[in-house]
Please model this.
Amino acid sequence: MATNKVGSDVSKKNSTNALTMQRVRQLSDQILEDLGGEQNSSQAQRQLARRGAALAVICEQLEPAAVAGLVDAIEPYLRTTETLRRILLSLGIEPRHQSNVADLSEYLRSNYTDSEEQ
Model:
């Protein structure tokens, strides 16, 4: 029995699309959770969360090629990442900066113990 290549390609594409949409929904739900949940979000916030999630998926898809240095992927990857960043900022989701500087009292305790004073 011969297989239908067109049918196989369509089936494969539908499967890929379903996985992509599942990932978009997952990320959108996570973004909305960061905003306090869907019930506490406006329609505009939900729309921006969906668009942000879609852009995040596009970034995930472009990332391997961009990291590999494929020139055709770098510019769209950077443009999409910047647009995603602006959407997240407009939603009030800001990057969290972790300080590499220790608390002063912690630093003094760890570096200047009583045994060193003797």
